[in-house]
Amino acid sequence: MNDAKPPAIPRPAATILLLRDGTEGLEVFMVVRHHQIDFAAGALVFPGGRVEDADHALAVNVAPDGTHLPSFRIAAIRETFEECGVLLARPRGANAIIDTDILKRLDDRFRTKLNAGTIDFDAVLAAEDLEPALDHLVHFAHWITPANQPKRYDTQFFLAQAPAAHLAVHDGYEAVESIWIRPADALAGTEAGRYKLVFATAKNLEKLARFPTAAAAIDAARSARVVTVEPQPIRLEGTKRLLRIPAEADYGGSEFIVDFPPAS
Fold first, then answer.
1. pLDDT tens column, 105-156
2. Phi and psi, residue 50, nearest 5°
3. What is the distance between the alpha carbons of residues 218 and 138, in angstroms, rounded to a whole number?
4. How far apart, in Å, are the Cα atoms of 246 and each of 24, 69, 190?
5. 3-state secondary structure of 58
6. How many CA atoms lie within 13 A of 124 on its CB side?
7. pLDDT for the residue numbered 170
8. Which CATH superfamily is domain 11-226 in?
């Protein structure tokens, strides 16, 4: 008789890698997860979170026909506003992302309520007659938490150029610190013990580090094929694990040995 529990069902989630060009090259915005959160606690991550029922409902109303992963894009935009105060939205019918005056009004009136779950994202957009800039997001990666983990996510990663006038800052709830950082510096800081990264974040930083500018990374992502990655773990000695992923996902190999705890 087999009493093993079936794998947990992965929860749909979305995240945005906000990009800008710094003085020494491409930088990405990252936040440090609160230590009391039960997934990637204390880790340096990209803003993001679960896809909610309201995200699906909003996508039906605002996503143009043929939009790829509309609910995930809505969730990524909403979570980025909640976590760091950047809102990838535009006045209805316009091309440009909202200015700082509109952003400040929305931040002052709604960001705390949105984080608390007392208001829906569609009400935030309706207050200024905005539409989410779904086309501002470029699909970059798709990762599913390994089947042996108690808490699993099915996460779509997107790239987006950060609006220059939007000041990204962590929310103080789920995220307790935030930085703009070169991908290579985040990876080096992890090796030196300054940061904690989960495997998916580290591999996506490695891929991002190939590009000198935000435009180069986004242009490459537009033409690349996204291959789903669900690491297959094999326990080694101590805390070490061998993780197998598809070589065609373009992370520089198919087998990687890691020596840090899993995300959950």
1. 999 999 999 988 999 999 999 999 999 999 999 999 999 999 989 899 999 9
2. -70, 150
3. 7
4. 32, 22, 24
5. helix
6. 34
7. 46
8. Nucleoside Triphosphate Pyrophosphohydrolase (3.90.79.10)
